[in-house]
């Protein structure tokens, strides 16, 4: 009779362990437990995420400043290139003024230099 009870006991033991395993599984996956685990995860990772956000905002501000500086420098270079016409005009006027000065100096010393060049409208 002991031999007959053993398979029956094993079957009952298996049923009990299966029910226990199912109960533990349900408890472990209950929504409140999931929410608790989620809250713990957020509490642990939030300070690091906040630091990353602050770092990214600081880098964005630095980048915006650098971009503004580069754009301003490009604008200044473009303005210099555009002003080359005026520099050439000033150069022509200076050459003309030097020529007139030389002519006036020669005339003051009594020489007769060649006729000064006519003023150019540069």
Automatic annotation (TrEMBL):
Pfam families, sorted: BORCS8 (PF10167)
Annotated localization: Lysosome membrane
Keyword annotations from UniProtKB, A to Z: Lysosome, Membrane
InterPro entries: BORCS8 (IPR019320)
Annotated Gene Ontology cellular component terms: BORC complex; lysosomal membrane
Cited PANTHER family: BLOC-1-RELATED COMPLEX SUBUNIT 8, MEF2B PROTEIN
Similarity comment: Belongs to the BORCS8 family.
Stated name of the protein: BLOC-1-related complex subunit 8
Species: Callorhinus ursinus (Northern fur seal)
Gene symbol of the encoding locus: BORCS8
